[in-house]
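Researcher: I'm preparing a figure for a lab meeting and need a structural model of a single chain. I don't have an experimental structure, so a prediction will have to do for now. The sequence is pasted below. Please return the structure as tokens so I can convert it later.
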Amino acid sequence: MSKPEPAADDGPMYIAREKIHPREVKGPFQTLRHLAVIVLLGIFYGLPWLQWDGRQAVLFDLPARQFHVFGLTLWPQDFVYLALLLVIAALSLFFFTALAGRLWCGYACPQTVWTEAFIWMERWTEGKRQQRIKLDKAPWSRQKILRRGSKHLLWIVFALFTGFTFVGYFTPITELAGRLTTLSLGPWETFWVLFYGVATWGNAGFLREQVCIYMCPYARFQSAMFDNNTLIISYDEERGEPRGGRPRGIDPRERGLGDCIDCNLCVQACPTGIDIRKGLQYECIACAACIDACNGVMDKMNYPRGLIRYSTENAMNGKPEKVLRPRVMIYGLALLVLTTGVVYSLTQRVPLAVEVLSDRNVVYREVDWYTIENVYTVRVLNKDRVAHDYRLEAEGLEGIEVVTREDTLRVGPGETDSVVARVQVPRDAVEGAGNPFRLIMESTTDPDIRTVNTARFHGPSPGDN
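Model: Understood. Here is the structure written out token by token.
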């Protein structure tokens, strides 16, 4: 009986990650990406220093439960706006993905933006792609220590400044800077500066494309939003194949070749290390570095540009394209309606919240033979940045009056107070329970700050003595 053949060795089950050194390329898409990085980082680092009406323009003051966004101040009771903002962000992602693929990933995702900034610092200190690869393989020496040390010094300073800026959105950044210079930061502030700084250093310096490939869920479900008319980065296989090297100035068709010279610059330029010539892959973040790299090669070979380009699957197959299609129209309409509604709601928002609670112990009482009285507790939340004196009035029933202990109720900014309101109505003006009327709370100094609440007035049923 013969012995069984040993199982074939398919290689190790785990292969250590090989660091990707994306090649620096030039072109219109990379210029656009660099501009996006500069603008977005400028907004992030500059916005906390902007002042508005004597305070920080954007400040999420958690201890005071106030969220300042330029001239708008929101409170925990306005949490609905945060929920709507998240819905708008999700709809925007769906809309632009269905229309033009992973534009968010390639141009505006924080992971992409900070990774690009860290790669810039790496190029400044360690050189171009081949120099960095050579430095990785070289033994430790004085030059390698200096280059690596200077790189990490820049990374750490930049990451800590990022953490400091992040905390500056929650603690006034001028106060934070003052305490930092005197080394008197609080424990929580110190923790979050270090935590966010280390997270930035690790994600943008070391993990990089692994965040996009293994940690980001968007890469996994993006295909559900793609269709044959979605704009994606595509390699024109019919034009490019078969690949092969050739001297410049030679007609590739004479040698049975396509336009692709198999230079691999598109692979070297890719920040996730994929070969776009193998088709669309979920690792592709649509940064268009491969397009700029390939167009540069086509220019040198005197071939037409566009061997790798933004296109749709229908266009690549010679079929007509449709920009306005059901899913795009539905996403766009929902986004337009929701955004318009939120903007309108914010412009019409009254910085006053009133809750009316009726007295449950006594439904109604007779003040005298002619007057019926209901008692309500009116809770007032002043959502403005200044104190207000409020006046309470009632309307909707004939002869209705409101009696309170004080003529006005003063409530400080962000504070809540309540007043007991005795609402009196002539007996002849009410009949039984559930007579609707309106309670009006209005600022004595600003008539635009006014709310109207509907309540029910209860009286004796017909025939009661």
